[in-house]
Specification:
23% helix; four-stranded antiparallel beta sheet; single chain; 33% strand; 4 helices
């Protein structure tokens, strides 16, 4: 599904100005203050547009690689959006607020995708605004036998899964198969596929959230014994 810009006004916390995100390929800037000098401007009649710099080109490339945009969205629209995210963050707004605002500025975009877009803008255009990343537990489960968890939402980035299991066997066959996966509507990441009575380790998985893929996953376990899982991400 293609993304298009829609009108959204971002209020800068503690500031008199507001950021107005553009629709389609219209211009965007700040109300009550001059736009940053690095913000690519729309050309006026007879003028030559400021060339996009290396950071802007990198941001545009990352955005177009991960998301599908409608034909009315130009490279300058994307670069302008990235600078607006940076200005919003530099005005004292949290990344969570910026993520919601970023998601609201495009059609067909979830909050998780907005967060990923905001992080791309920070990484490529204003790295000083990137928050210090820490490991957070997304979900933790203990149980036995075959089971599917409720859905949980992952961030765009590597996932660390720590698991252990025991009693996975029978007197007749010895050890049984132990399988576990993280599953979304469009992705299936294998955590384990063992034939053993007991075991465990920490593994890193890479969910695919490109082109609007779902960030909602669940844990699927097939076992005969007891098990525990801890799913974490750094953000």
């Amino acid at each position: 599904m293609r993304l298009t810009r829609r009108s959204i006004t971002l209020g800068a916390a503690g500031a008199a100005s507001v950021l107005v995100l553009a629709v389609g390929c219209g211009a965007a800037g700040t109300s009550g203050s001059s736009p940053p000098s690095h913000n690519p401007s729309s050309p006026t009649a007879g003028s030559t547009p400021t060339p996009l710099n290396a950071s802007e080109l990198a941001f545009i490339s990352h955005m177009r690689t991960n998301y599908s945009f409608g034909p009315g969205v130009s490279d300058r629209d994307i670069a302008r959006f990235g600078h607006q995210v940076c200005t919003f963050r530099e005005s004292g707004n949290t990344q969570a607020t910026a993520a919601k605002a970023a998601a609201s500025s495009w059609t067909n975009t979830s909050t998780a995708e907005g967060e990923a877009m905001a992080r791309l803008a920070e990484k490529d255009l204003c790295p000083s605004e990137l928050p210090v990343q820490r490991w957070h537990v997304i979900a933790s489960y203990n149980g036995s036998g075959t089971w599917n968890s409720p859905q949980f939402r992952l961030h765009d980035g590597p996932v660390r899964v720590t698991f252990s299991y025991s009693g996975n066997g029978s007197s007749q066959y010895g050890s049984d198969n132990f399988m576990a996966d993280l599953v979304s509507s469009s992705d299936d990441l294998m955590i384990a596929n063992d034939i053993a009575v007991s075991g465990g380790k920490t593994t890193t998985l890479y969910p695919d959230m490109s082109y609007g893929a779902s960030p909602d996953y669940h844990l699927g376990v097939e076992a005969t014994g007891s098990w525990s899982f801890t799913i974490s991400q750094k953000y």
